[in-house]
């Protein structure tokens, strides 16, 4: 590994993951240490028991009401998150082998599914970004909103670049992640020799930055949404 | 009737439900000079107790309350 | 940074700090400014003005919070457009907090269920501390508290007012013994009306026809302290009724057709005043629906021939939980009932809530922002719009004039009285009045 790769795709990854984990823990602590107001803020009608739990999950994952008031935005947001989930699951393969049946299926569909999801992410992120340049989203937005979208776009574009063009075998990526896990980060010969190595390092760099900022940004809604949607149904 | 007062502003608040009579008087009383008198006619019986309570908190003075059938007439002096 | 703060700024930031709780932090930190709420808001939809986007109303508080309380916001204020608490910010807070009807329709549609009014509640608390509040709301709140403090001064005036209604009550019920008791100890029900005959007489007719063991409250149910956002005063206004109910030993406090009054008594005041009521709070429809079910009042289902629609007051419906009881009553007395679309928790706000109706300066604003409601009513083809909230009725009357809807706006109880069958000794139809 060259020095730049070592610092960015090695050392910085550990820092980013540590900040991510500790940051999220700190953020959760900040929320939970404040007393909850005894005021029940829920909207009526209030579902009970199993229906309530189901509703909270549906509100958080599908937010069907939003589709009624702004269908295009709802569709984009829904597809974006779906693709994000898909990409996240896809990246889990880097950590180790899935059960054999899944491993085979995923391996077969990786190029098509990963590519599709990557494109969905780019398109929806562009849409989110462009709409923020138009009133009234423009006046509503603060620099954080643009920063996060641009950062996400960067991560995704570099990821797509690797997914669609780089001829690096999957085993090489897996080897790299394994080396990270073993605390001895290094690139195998396929990556080291590939012209796409820089793209990979930039992809990892932007992802690191995203991980570092995430716990302190509005992106914590990926946890918080369950909590606030719980309040709405109680 | 009550000719003993020189009325600066007369408000017909008949048919209005509470709290609108009080709101209208509260707004309009600023249109008369301090010491001036507003005459307000309301039909809402709630006004009977609401006007005195309002006058007490705002510091204005209800000089007289007259009743004539459904009409309730207040003479209010702007104090400040 | 702290050293540079003026005394009034310290005070207002103290209010903000004191209002911090878990919900507030979620609502401050999770909003992604996606703007979906704008599409759910009748005010934004009717005006297209960005300052009326629900999340934008809260964004002012969020930017102040970033500036003074969040670590990253203090470090890099420009990232959040964090702003100083200055005169201009106060102006913006005022505009944001006191032009919202508090309908919470945006909360239904927000992907995170963020309660904008919870944030506006903090904005209002800061404005209350700054003394920058709508004059009318403050005036009405103070007058209500004064009435509670010096009730002995006003008791006779109230008695006089109520006694004046009894001849009509006897005529319309055909019951020579019909009465409107006030302050009767040991009554089962304490009915809390609005200050006005229109809210007392029709309910008295039904209570008498049903043979209810009831008494009338000396206080009006409306609570301008709530709209003002001064929870301390709002609790004092509500406490008048709570003390009265306790002193009389009633089982059930029945709130008249008034949206926010029901919500305050049913859902808010026990938290504000840190107590558990020794009585049940119900909306007027709960006993009325019981009377119908138990046959204690009889109705003629053919007496109301015109098409009726029902407007869910936001504070009674999505924020209060009363959806079906009023509908059951209307269905029992009107042959042609047509729902608005959407309805119940998704119903459009009429534009009159939040104390806006009590502010004459906002009349034009209300006329403009009621557009969606007016269109919704027109689409039903109804001639009668029944709604159990005084603010809604006043607003719908305004919309009726401005949009030439040709409707009659009515309280549900008025329709019930119109349809009630007066039996046996009860000579005349209750309807004629």
Any overview of this molecule?
The complex is a heterotrimer of chains A (234), B (80) and C (433). Chain A has one domain: Fumarate Reductase Cytochrome B subunit (Up-down Bundle). Chain A is 76% helix and 0% strand. Chain A contains 11 helices and no strands. The longest helix of chain A has 32 residues, at 100-131. The mean pLDDT of chain A is 96. Helix content of chain B is 26%, strand content 32%. A 4-stranded mixed β-sheet of chain B has the order 1-2-4-3, covered by helices on one side. In chain C, the strands form 3 sheets. In chain C, strands 2-1-3-4 form a 4-stranded parallel β-sheet, with helices on both faces. In chain C, strands 7-6-8-9 form a 4-stranded parallel β-sheet, with helices on both faces. In chain C, helix 21 links the parallel strand 8 (384-386) and strand 9. Chain C folds into 3 domains: 2-132, Fumarate Reductase Iron-sulfur Protein, Chain B, domain 2 (Orthogonal Bundle), CATH 1.10.1060; 137-296, Rossmann fold (3-Layer(aba) Sandwich); 298-420, Rossmann fold. Chains in contact: A-C, B-C. The interface between B and C is medium-sized, with 22 and 34 residues.
What's the total helix number of chain C? 22
Tell me, rounded to a whole number, the average pLDDT of chain C: 94
Approximately how much beta-strand content do the residues of chain C carry? 5-15%
**CATH fold naming of the largest domain in chain C:** Rossmann fold
Helix content of chain B: 25-40%
Biggest sheet strand order of chain B reads: 1-2-4-3
**Rg over alpha carbons of chain C:** 23 Å
Give the strand order, joined by hyphens, for the main sheet of chain C: 2-1-3-4
Q: Distance between termini of chain B?
A: 26 Å
- Strand percentage of chain B: 25-35%
Q: How many separate helices of chain B?
A: 2
CATH class of chain B: Alpha Beta
Task: Classify the oligomer.
Answer: heterotrimer
The overall average pLDDT of chain B, rounded, is: 88
Bulk shape of chain C: globular
Biggest sheet layout of chain C:
4 strands, parallel
What gyration radius of chain B follows from the Cα positions, in whole Å? 11 Å
Q: What class, by secondary structure content of chain C?
A: alpha/beta
How many distinct beta strands of chain B?
A: 4
Helices and strands in order, then pairings?
The complex is a heterotrimer of chains A (234), B (80) and C (433).
Chain A lengths: L2 H31 L15 H13 L2 H6 L1 H22 L7 H32 L5 H4 L2 H23 L4 H12 L7 H5 L3 H17 L7 H12 L2
Helix pairs in contact in A: 1-10, 2-11, 4-5, 5-7, 7-10
Chain B lengths: L8 E5 L6 H9 L8 E6 L4 H12 L2 E8 L2 E7 L3
Chain C lengths: L6 H12 L3 H9 L5 H5 L1 H6 L6 H15 L2 H5 L11 H12 L6 H5 L6 H15 L4 H15 L1 H13 L2 H8 L15 E4 L4 H14 L3 E3 L7 H5 L2 H18 L3 E4 L3 H14 L7 E4 L1 H9 L4 E2 L8 E3 L13 H10 L3 E2 L24 H7 L1 H10 L3 E3 L3 H13 L5 E3 L1 H8 E2 L12
Parallel strand pairs in C: 1-2, 1-3, 3-4, 6-7, 6-8, 8-9
Antiparallel strand pairs in C: 5-10
């Amino acid at each position: 590994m060259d020095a730049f790769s070592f610092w960015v795709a090695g050392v910085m990854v550990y820092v980013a993951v540590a900040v991510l984990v500790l940051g999220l823990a700190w953020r959760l602590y900040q929320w939970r240490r404040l007393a909850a107001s005894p005021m029940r803020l829920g909207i009526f009608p209030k579902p009970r028991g199993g229906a309530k739990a189901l509703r909270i999950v549906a509100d958080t994952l599908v937010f069907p009401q939003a589709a009624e008031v702004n269908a295009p935005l709802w569709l984009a947001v829904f597809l974006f998150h779906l693709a994000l989930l898909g990409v996240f699951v896809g990246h889990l393969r880097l950590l180790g082998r899935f059960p054999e049946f899944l491993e085979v299926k995923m391996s077969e569909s990786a190029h098509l599914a990963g590519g599709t999801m990557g494109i969905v992410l780019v398109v929806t992120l562009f849409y989110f970004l462009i709409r923020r340049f138009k009133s009234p989203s423009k006046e509503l937005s603060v620099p954080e909103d643009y920063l996060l979208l641009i950062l996400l776009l960067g991560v995704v574009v570099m990821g797509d670049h690797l997914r669609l063009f780089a001829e690096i075998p999957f085993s090489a990526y897996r080897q790299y992640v394994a080396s990270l896990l073993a605390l001895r980060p290094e690139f195998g010969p396929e990556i080291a020799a590939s012209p796409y190595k820089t793209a990979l390092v930039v992809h990892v760099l932007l992802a690191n930055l995203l991980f570092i900022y995430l716990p302190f940004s509005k992106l914590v809604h990926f946890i918080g949404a369950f909590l606030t949607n719980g309040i709405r149904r109680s | 009737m009550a000719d003993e007062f020189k009325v600066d502003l007369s408000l017909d608040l008949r048919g209005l439900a509470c709290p609108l009579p009080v709101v209208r008087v509260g707004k309009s009383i600023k249109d008369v000079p301090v010491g001036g008198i507003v005459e307000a006619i309301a039909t809402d019986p709630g006004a009977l107790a609401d006007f005195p309570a309002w006058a007490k908190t705002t510091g204005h003075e209800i000089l007289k309350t007259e009743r004539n059938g459904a009409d309730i007439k207040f003479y209010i002096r702007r104090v400040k | 940074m702290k050293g540079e703060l003026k005394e009034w700024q310290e005070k207002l930031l103290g209010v903000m700090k004191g209002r911090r709780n878990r919900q507030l932090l979620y609502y401050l930190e999770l909003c992604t400014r996606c703007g979906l709420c704008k599409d759910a808001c009748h005010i934004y939809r009717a005006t297209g003005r960005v300052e009326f986007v629900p999340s934008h109303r809260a964004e002012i508080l969020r930017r102040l919070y970033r500036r003074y309380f969040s670590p990253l916001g203090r470090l890099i204020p420009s990232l959040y457009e964090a702003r100083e608490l200055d005169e201009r910010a106060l102006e913006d807070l005022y505009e944001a907090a006191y032009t919202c009807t508090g309908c919470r329709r945006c909360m239904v549609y927000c992907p995170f269920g963020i309660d904008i009014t919870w944030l506006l509640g903090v904005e209002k608390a800061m404005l209350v501390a700054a003394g920058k509040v709508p004059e009318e709301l403050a005036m009405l709140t103070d007058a209500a508290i004064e009435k509670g403090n010096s009730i002995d001064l006003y008791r006779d005036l109230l008695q006089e007012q109520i006694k004046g209604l009894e001849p009509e009550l006897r005529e319309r019920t055909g019951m020579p013994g019909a009465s409107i008791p006030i302050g009767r100890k040991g009554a089962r029900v304490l009915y809390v009306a609005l200050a006005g005959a229109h809210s007392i007489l029709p309910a008295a007719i039904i209570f008498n026809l049903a043979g209810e063991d009831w008494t009338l409250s000396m206080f009006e149910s409306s609570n301008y302290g709530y709209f003002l956002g001064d929870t301390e005063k709002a609790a004092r206004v509500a406490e008048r009724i709570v003390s009265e109910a306790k002193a009389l030993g009633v089982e059930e406090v029945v709130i008249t057709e008034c949206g926010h009054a029901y919500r305050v008594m049913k859902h808010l005041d026990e938290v504000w005043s840190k107590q558990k009521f020794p009585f049940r709070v119900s909306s007027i429809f709960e006993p009325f629906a019981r009377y119908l079910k138990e046959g204690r009042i009889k109705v003629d289902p053919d007496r109301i021939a015109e098409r009726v629609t029902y407007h869910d007051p936001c504070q009674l419906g999505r924020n209060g939980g009363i959806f079906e009881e009023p509908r059951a009553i209307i269905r029992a007395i009107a042959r042609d009932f047509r729902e608005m679309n959407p309805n119940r928790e998704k119903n459009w706000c009429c534009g009159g809530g939040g104390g806006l109706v009590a502010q004459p300066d906002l009349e034009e604003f209300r006329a403009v922002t009621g557009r969606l409601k007016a269109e919704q009513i027109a689409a039903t083809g109804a001639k009668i719009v029944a709604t159990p909230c005084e603010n809604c009725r006043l607003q719908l009357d305004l919309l009726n004039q401005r949009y030439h809807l040709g409707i009659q706006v009515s309280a549900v109880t008025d329709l019930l009285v119109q349809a009630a069958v007066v039996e046996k000794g009860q000579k005349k139809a209750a309807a004629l009045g």
